[in-house]
Amino acid sequence: LEKMTDLVAVWEVALSDGVHKIEFEHGTTSGKRVVYVDGKEEIRREWMFKLVGKETFTVGATKTKAAINIDAVGGFAYEYTLEINGRSLKKYIENRLKTTNTWILNLGGTDYRIVLEKDTMDVWCNGQKMETAGEFVEDGTETHFTVADHSCCIKAVSSGKRKEGIIHTLIVDNREIPEAVE
């Protein structure tokens, strides 16, 4: 594997199926552009005469749309910005905090990253969409699933406050798991 000498940007993007690493090489003398997602080459362009522009690709199991914008910022300096689903990375992360809950836990020596997509109630564990069973209970809903022979349940209960909305809690083997901040 050739050394990434023209590496100009690296981003970590948390999606439902995991945290993905995006690397970008930009050879300003050769016009080369290379995009790697999780170490795998997704795009390679040699001898691009136009040094500014946009490279689009997808990330992860959900084939999330991504783009790297290349803009000149005077002289021979360039700025690289990553967009996810048409939003700047910052806006994407802010929106994701509102639409998902993430928990990190260790069961039997193995780390698990569980993500709840609040809009669809889909549950992901270490990159796999989980088979779930939902039920209505007295104070809200429960979404049941199993991780490594451990019974898991995400309880959705109204906070009673309009601004806070619904509170989602992960319970594994009758133990509440604190939410992770990614």
TrEMBL record:
One of its GO terms (cellular component) is cytoplasm. Its main location: cytoplasm. Keywords: Apoptosis, Cytoplasm. GO terms for biological process: apoptotic process; negative regulation of extrinsic apoptotic signaling pathway via death domain receptors. Belongs to the FAIM1 family. Plays a role as an inducible effector molecule that mediates Fas resistance produced by surface Ig engagement in B cells. This is Fas apoptotic inhibitory molecule 1. The lineage of its organism: Eukaryota, Metazoa, Chordata, Craniata, Vertebrata.
